[in-house]
Amino acid sequence: MAFTGLYANVFAAPDMKNAKAFFADWGMKKISDSKSGVVFETSAGSRVILRPPSSKLLPPPAAKGMNFREMIWGVSSKAHLAKIQRELEKDRDVTVDKDGTLHCLDPAGIGVGFTLWKPKKSKADLRTPYNSYQQNERVDTISTFYEQARPIRMGHIGFVLPDIKAAEKFYKDRLGFWLSDRYAGGAAVFMRCAEESQHHNLFLIWSEAGNLRYHHTAYEVRDIHEVFGGGIAFDRKGWDTEVGPGRHPISSAYFWYFKNPCGGAVEYFSDSDYVTADWKPHNYKINKFSEWHLVDGIHQQDDGRVRPSMSAAGKQ
After folding, report:
1. What DSSP state is assigned to residue 136?
2. 203-to-13, 126, 183, 186 alpha-carbon distances in Å
3. Res 309: pLDDT
4. pTM beyond 0.85, yes or no
């Protein structure tokens, strides 16, 4: 199967006004707004679709109270889309929209769809040039300071599941996803939707308690400066940090997670590992979330003190 990436997330939004404000502040562009729902888009075309909980257009929840309803994967051609349909119809109901988009439920009951999609490219998505001891990419130019993040694409999505083995078998054996890494003992698996890809596009975590829930979706930004600058800007708009900023030892990416009002979390990330067929999956024995991280974000205390500056120095 030739996948082009994670195309869309579909949510039931109990508070549509709050959810719309959240994703607008997150840096996504609103491209439609109607009674049936609202659509936000990243610069590459990845989408978040928000619908009222009563909408008949929503797939059923995989667990009681779960507002996440469906992930839709991009596919490169009609031939591959038809191949996916034939494979899935062997053992599950598949519905088809007028535009050819496929919808079904995965082994955990999570909504999963497939549609023709080619990510858009823009020169505005180019990272900031870096200088290092051996190479200076940025000469006679001040670096970029980001006052707002503008997500490029959705890089990966994560779920907490009671049966990881069934999910891994479905996505790897039935849909052709690749195993990137795993935690020993079946604690979690990291999978990618293409042979050559970022380290992972799908992250599955085992629930010892037998619960099922949506965990998070990660949004790639241009560079680590945007992870920090965008996170600080989002924090100042009043949205709560889940954890971060920090850096993952698995995937090497810099991250900053925030709480999503529709459940789970959203993540800014940058500088993920890129792997090919030559990559050898690791079987990590220690579940280590981060190399380092801050717990509650980066805060500017509102205590009336003058922070370090030339004007402050002149008063000392």
Report:
1. B
2. 23, 26, 11, 12
3. 63
4. yes
